[in-house]
Amino acid sequence: MQQLITTLLNGLTMGMVYAAFALALVLIWRSTRIVNFAQAPMAMVTTYIAMVLIEGGLNYWLAFILALLSGFVLGAFVERVIVRPVEGKSDINAVILTLGLFIVLHALAALVFGSDYKSFPAPFGVRGITVGGHSLAITPFGIFTIVAVIVVMLLLLLLFQKTDVGLQMRASAFNPEVARLLGVKVSSMLTLGWALAALVGSLSGLLIAGGNLVHPGYMDSVVVFGFVAAVLGGLDSPLGAVVGGLIMGIALSLVSGYLGSGLVSLAALLILVAVLLVKPGGLFSHASERKV
Amino acid sequence: MSTATDAPHSAAAPVFELSDIGVRFGGIVALDGVGLDVRPREVHGVIGPNGAGKTTLFNVACGFVTPVQGTIAWHGKPLDGLRPHQLAGLGIARTLQGLGLFDKISVLDNVMVGADRHGRAGFWSGLLALPRSSRDERTLRERSMTVLDELGIADYAGRAPASLPYPIRKRVALARALVAEPELLLLDEPASGLSEEEMSELGDIIEGLSERISVMLVEHHMDLVMRVCDRITVLDFGKVIAKGTPAEVREDPAVLAAYLGNEVTHDDSVHGLNGGENA
Predict the structure, then answer these.
(1) In chain B, which end has fewer C-beta atoms inside a 10 angstrom radius, N or C?
(2) What is the pLDDT of residue A154?
(3) Where do the domains of chain B lie, and which CATH numbers do they carry?
């Protein structure tokens, strides 16, 4: 029983991180129809920025926020400078571009920050909370992870549903042509969408790094799990991304806890295959919405 | 009464003017030397038989079709290389063919997207939800609700357009064009798909609009056009064949010929007969 609770709590924490990462993928997908494979290394770069700042003596929280902001700026930069030139051409161009960016950022990070493992500090204890003499798998940092992701998601929800900019972003995503005709600056909305997505991606990177070892490839497994989570949720649905992330986190945690950690990647692949076979549009899609 | 309302129309300089517009699609001449001007608070109708070039003219006015000759002027200033998305910034609104509603966001949100964004809070203050921006947000919401109310569809504000019947969706599209508080509204076949009663309500709406803005109405329902328009431009085979008030246009032999005798226009005797029957 205790192992089950531990496994579920662990899965919930990781699920939150996958949810944030999947949300980052969905934000870009639904406005530009591009799967941003460079999301993971972009988050990795901002985590290194946070680490350099903390090692330089900056307050952890200040570094955390600066890293998120650098993610925002990096996302806007990538959209404006790298993705914009292939806009309007075949979608596959942009996808290959993000794959290339994946490799470039990896190599750059190894050159600038070194390719060895470095430990990333955590602001809270990473030891389990003790309840009634039992040590649970939920750590203070784990609680922070869950709270941070929920707060960011609520802020995004407010932005999209309650502000004019959010409305313009939704309009641009649903029908860029019409939005443009109505006077919405669609290109600004695309840049903002990438920037916000990179910020959320950076959050997932920082949360995974907290109390763990960081190297240029530390986010690579997250891109796989986050992508499966996004597909599970239907790629078009922010809510789907969150639910998909939680399902992935808990499912993979159960696999890891009961079947062996070596099977986690295989399980993720099986989930992906199962989703694509049974409900290719994802849990939250309507069959008629997307033209194939 | 009609002279009192007509006088300012004829005296005022046109807000929107198309001069000597020519459009060719391959070897086909779609528009040839077409000109029309829309005056302040005037409803200007464009009519003509099928294939006369009405829609092409509308698309020129919207910037969707670039004419090979002629000029488009807004308050006397030529608009060179007009692009469709620039209309909103000028104060020209239009309804879109196929309505172009965002099906999955609420009617109110659909209308709010159409609001004019010039002179409002900037990108960054909008993003950061600064006080000025949220005040704009409120007035925007109120203004959108007011327009929905004026068009009699306030009850649908929270619904998604996909779930609404076509005539209601047409009104949502009209509300979205009007919320920008345009000086000129371009309407392309607004009566299509409407019942007689709905068309009559549409007529009331357009008459109400003409108290504050100009309207260019491209339409083939004669009843509506004759009722609401101050002046009418009649096209046939890409050329202007008549211009004037509804009464003048109704009596114009060239118009009668175009509508009733276009297959025999070369035959003078039949042409005359048609004109005689309807005069």
Answers:
(1) N
(2) 92
(3) 2-91+182-278 (3.40.50.300), 100-179 (no CATH)
